[in-house]
Design goal:
Elements: E1 4-8, E2 11-17, H1 26-35, H2 37-40, E3 44-48, E4 53-55, E5 58-63, E6 67-71, E7 77-83, H3 90-100, E8 102-103, H4 106-116, H5 124-133, E9 137-142, H6 147-156, E10 161-170, E11 176-182, E12 188-198, E13 201-204, E14 216-222, E15 225-232, E16 241-244, E17 256-261, E18 266-270
Parallel strand pairs: 7-9, 9-10, 14-18
Antiparallel strand pairs: 1-2, 2-10, 3-6, 4-5, 4-8, 6-7, 10-11, 12-13, 12-17, 13-16, 14-15, 15-16, 17-18
Helix pairs in contact: 4-5
Length: 271
């Protein structure tokens, strides 16, 4: 496994991925994730959620998500399941199947949330409306990337949101470093399809999405990685709004959308 080298002034620190440590446990990753949840998921309220969710197609089967994300705009809520990245996915698959087909009493969930998370009491109306009117989504967070594991996950759940939170530790446990990547649950405020024009240009179908920007260099995220792009807005009524991205690996057959999140970040997502 790779190590991180962090250089600060004249100091140099090597960080070892803790996923390589033999006695590292899933609960350790959960604790790390929750500790820094405000930084990792700044647009969400994040809570531990040890509440039993039944599987709708078989209510004898039930599991507890590790965390719950509630959008600060109260437009989505997300079960979070934290897993160590291991080839034996039987238990993980059963949990995912359950959380994608959930059965629960909304009133019971609300009572649980308000009891254990008093910060929500001032937002009871919004939380009530969200839990009762919108279905929960699912985000699975692994501690590492394994090609075989992700091939199995993608084959079975092609639309599942999966992130990897890699935790690195300096020798002696003095400092931690974190790296998150994957299908991050951006809190989206607007979106539009973008279509392939040529090798480096894409047409923005709904140009209103970028009205707040001026022509020129912009930054776009894909899988949480920043790409430099150039925006060209139409000068004539029937001309197209285009973005130019040179360094990418999109295929012209890919179905893509451009979204704007609550922080006005531009993100490309696959559909």
């Amino acid at each position: 496994m790779a190590q991180l080298l962090v250089i600060n002034a004249k100091e140099r620190h090597f960080y070892q991925p803790i996923a390589s440590i033999r006695d590292y446990k899933e609960s350790d990753l959960e604790a790390k994730l929750h500790k820094f949840s405000n930084e990792l998921f700044s647009n969400y309220y994040v809570f531990t959620f040890k509440y039993s969710i039944k599987k709708k197609s078989d209510i004898t089967e039930s599991y507890e998500p590790d965390l719950i994300l509630i959008s600060k705009n109260f437009n989505r809520w997300i079960f979070v399941e934290v897993e160590l990245c291991k080839p034996d996915l039987g238990h993980t698959f059963r949990q995912i199947d359950c959380f994608l087909d959930p059965y629960f009493n909304p009133d019971d969930v609300l009572r649980f949330l308000f009891k254990h998370n008093p910060v929500l009491n001032s937002k009871k109306s919004e939380v009530n409306s969200l839990i009762k009117n919108k279905s929960p989504e699912l985000l699975v967070i692994f501690d590492d990337y394994n090609k075989l594991v992700f091939e199995k996950i993608n084959a079975r759940y092609p639309n599942l949101k999966v992130c990897v939170l890699e935790v690195y530790r300096e020798s002696g446990n003095h400092f931690d470093a974190y790296r998150i990547g994957g299908k991050y649950p951006y809190d989206v405020t607007n979106s539009t399809k973008i279509s392939y024009f040529d090798e480096s240009h894409f047409i923005v179908e709904k140009k209103e999405l970028v009205d707040h920007l001026t022509d020129g260099d912009i930054e776009i995220l894909f899988d949480m990685m920043p790409f430099n792009a150039v925006l060209t807005k139409p000068k004539r009524k029937n001309s197209k709004c285009m973005i130019k991205i040179v360094d990418h690996n999109f295929d012209k057959k890919d179905s893509l959308q451009l979204v704007l999140d609550v922080d006005n970040k531009l993100i490309i997502q696959t559909l």
